[in-house]
Amino acid sequence: MNVNDDLEKLIENLPFFLQEQLNKHTDKDQLIEIILDLGRRPEARFVSGPQYLSQKIISWQDLDYTTKRISKFSNENRAGIERTLHRISCIRNRQFLINGLTCRIGRAVFGIISVVRDLLESEKSILILGKPGVGKTTIIREIARVLADEIQKRVIIIDTANEIAGDSDIPHSGIGRARRMQVAKTEFQHQVMIEAVENHMPQVIIVDEIGTELEVLAARTIAEKGVQLVGTTHGNCLENLIKNPPLVDLIGGIQYVTLSDDEAKRRGTKKSILERKAYPAFEIIIEINQQNYWTIHEDVNQSVDLFLRDNFVIGQIRQFHLTEKIKIKYPKTQSYQNSLISSSNNLNNSFLTTNKNWILVNQFKDQKSLKLQSKQLVIYPYSLSYNLLKEVLLKTGLKFVLTNEIKKANLIIGLKKHLKQNFKLITLAKQKNIPIYALNNISLYQVTKIVQLMNN
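The line above is the sequence of AAA+ ATPase domain-containing protein; the predicted structure tokens follow.
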């Protein structure tokens, strides 16, 4: 791995007595941040732990010297240094005067994502989970460079705090050929995410620190448009995400479902159970447990479903060291495989007992047309999520294609309330002898049962 930290550009903006101490420090390449608090000794935090840099205490003059040599502080009390990745955050008193500075070292680490290079090439959306300070921003910066320079994708970075590409109108070289869109205020991040898709035709959107319901909604909207997403959010593990109400929709959302007495008895569960509502916006989750120890969920659908059924098992762990080869541990035990088979069987059997919440809109003279004889389903989804249909159809094992052209379809599936308003669609389908199935609401069970019955 190669590291570019531009540390000297930060040090030269600090008071002279600190410059001397830091320049001769033997562990300055392990520096994480520098703390300057009024009336206290200056402190440096290294990977190994904190250390005081001087016996001299910080004065108003020392703080003023540093703040005048960096960019202006934003509404979020953050500033930076031109053409670097360093972030300086301030603490203010009740008179809004700065009485403390946190100077966080920004580094571009080249080669850090070699451990997950295969996941990037899968073109699936990836969410990175980790505690503050574990290195999430460094990881997505390198992901942006690899996707743009090596995999030749059109990459747009939504840089709200200017941490990914630096505090300058000219982005840092650490992002390669990726483009960067700055965000004027944090509360506008979701708007800029949507604007990036609508105006700049990206293949990949990269966003740091997804945290609000509006940002989650924007992420789901982008995923439905077929754009690959790479994002980060705070959390130790997948369980934290499932139990976090504003963020749970990133993995499909959770809802209570009431089963019939027979179904609950057959499953061996309570009548009210938790189930995933929809297809997740992110298909892969990476948990940054430590800087060189990552947990991978390659199938978020499966991981969430198993967790809700109390069958959850960690699927994959990846470790790497500078002097060793990458190690991938994949503890796929027999009990884990059995739980997958059991879950799949329970899911399929439950469709056979589900009430009919769908109807066939148009009737045909030739009743055989209801059973599709072609080897491949060509489906026109109307007011339905492409990702939801993909998830269902992949489980049935059928060959299928989703199309935007009605004339090419041999099956139309849509929402009843929307289909009622589209007489042209119904008329055209009748002329082309294409069956239309209308759902009362979007449900994994309803869609699967339709496909199963038509395939029998």
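Note on the example: The chain has three domains: 2-104, 108-349, 358-455. The chain has a mean pLDDT of 82.
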